[in-house]
Model the fold of this input.
Amino acid sequence: MLNIQDVSVLYIDASTEIREKNTLLLNEHGLNVFEVNNLSEAYAIFRKNRVDIVLMDILLPNESGLDFIRFLRQKELLTPVIITTSLSDQSFLLDAINLEITRYLLKPFSSNELVNAFHHVIKKLFMRYPINFTHLHDGYCYDPINKTLNNFDGKSIDLSKKEYHLIELLLSNRENITPYSVIESTIWEDSYMSMDALRTLVRGIRKKTYPTIISNHNGIGYKINLN
Done:
């Protein structure tokens, strides 16, 4: 079951004073916060860690927070986003809404407003959780909120970011074989994927679960097996 301590937040704000103040508040409410002051660091955190909610200033020095939201949506990620904005930034708000932000906070906002925004978003995460299990073979199921595999004893099996991204990619295309090229562009993004690296990734998932969870179709790609 999802606990508040399991929820991770990526917080992007150029102001050290504001960021540290709000991070402390969120930590006091049990949230795990990754705080950064620019988009370059945000991309790095996102690629290496599980992020459940994004809190961000929509305008950063020489950068637009909209670019990061576009990055999420282009990858078909529905990660909830809370943006902070000032009156002078209102021209960006419509674009942000079109990118399906979850909440926006008008600066300066109070601690209560920030906490209430997170309560709203976390409530949605909790409501979504019970219907999102994907049942696999041998009593295993995938938990997309905690990004873990659960076995027949109810034990959670931790996955690396590449492992759960691959599982989610294969599940999203469960009726078909997912080509190697799609796996490379989605999981490795701009990096080169060797076949040895891909085989090692799949082997790791099989070792944590069972040998037939993912099948290889030589010269084509991989497919997850649900029956």
Notes: The helical segments are 16-28, 39-48, 65-74, 93-98, 111-128, 161-172, 180-188, 195-208. Residues 53 and 79 are 6 Å apart (CA to CA). The chain has two domains: 4-130, 134-224. The two ends are 25 Å apart (CA to CA).
